[in-house]
Amino acid sequence: xxxxxxxxxxxxxxAKSRLADAVGAAIRPHLALAFxxxxxxxxxxxxxxxxxxxxxxxxxxxxxxxxxGARIVxxxxxxxxxxxxxxxxxxxxxxxxxxxxxxxxxxxxxxRAAELALVLAAxxxxxxxxxxxxxxxxxxxxxxxxxxxxxxxxxxPSRNRHLRSGAAEIASVGTDSVRRDVDTADDLxxxxxxxxxxxxxxxxxxxxxxxxxxxxxx
Length: 218
Prior knowledge:
alpha/beta; Spore Coat Polysaccharide Biosynthesis Protein SpsA, Chain A; 7-stranded mixed sheet; 7 strands; 16% strand; globular
């Protein structure tokens, strides 16, 4: 089975606000874009991924991610994360009604294509499936096979919401990079320990507090 991924990205000026104290207000939006660029690049290199649709209204992010090969979908609902994801899935299926679609966080800078392939293969066994984040509280990935609605319920303790919605939970073994989203400085350090993509690595190498921790996955 091949998949279309839907990646939501809020305006960069608002993204990753909890990182501001650690990295500085000036670098924060650039780091948020770097996370998304590394996420999208890794996703597009996965053989099971047909395309990536990024739902965003940020003009810089749209230009950079389009150049990287993503399809840009304007966030016309402008009603938050889950509305953006549902809209992105609808846009994908307007062109390919039978598409298998999956929502993927934009803040997975350590993402490995091979680990994403494992997650997608597991998701293909169920009508709907999800992967919890590293904390076991939230969600970084939600999939809907052909004929199933995505029904995203991201945000906060979304693991329990997705379980209650009937989505199957994918086993987490061997999927660390797909679960490692970044909201805080500790999250970023954990991602750096896994090895991040080249754009994130370049930005972090310029930050004195993080320079010694940078491991690039390039």
